[in-house]
Specification:
By secondary structure, the protein is an all-alpha fold. It is built from one helix and no strands. It has one helix at 2-63. The protein is rod-shaped and about 120 Å long.
C-alpha cells in the first residue's frame, strides 16, 4: 500500500510542478502584454493629440479672414 501512496504522491508533485511552470509562463506573457498595451496607449494618446492639433489648425485656416480667397472682379475687356 505504501508504494501506491508514494506513486500517487509523485504524480501529484509532478502535476503541481507542471501547473507552477504554466503559471510562471502565463505571468510572463501577461507582463509582456501589459507592456505592449502601455506602449499602444501612449501612442494612441499621442495620435489623438496630433489629430486635435491638426483639426485646430484646419479650423483656424478656414475661419481666418486673411486667408480667405477674395473674388477678383472680371477683367476689363468683359
Amino acid at each position: 500500500m505504501a508504494a501506491a501512496e508514494l506513486n500517487t504522491l509523485n504524480e501529484l508533485e509532478h502535476r503541481l510542478e507542471s501547473l507552477e511552470a504554466r503559471n510562471a509562463f502565463q505571468d510572463d506573457v501577461i507582463e509582456q502584454l501589459n507592456q505592449e498595451l502601455t506602449i499602444h496607449q501612449a501612442q494612441l494618446a499621442e495620435l489623438k493629440e496630433n489629430m486635435r492639433l491638426i483639426a485646430a489648425r484646419i479650423k483656424e485656416s478656414t475661419t481666418s479672414p486673411d486667408t480667405q480667397v477674395e473674388i477678383e472682379p472680371p477683367p476689363p475687356h468683359y
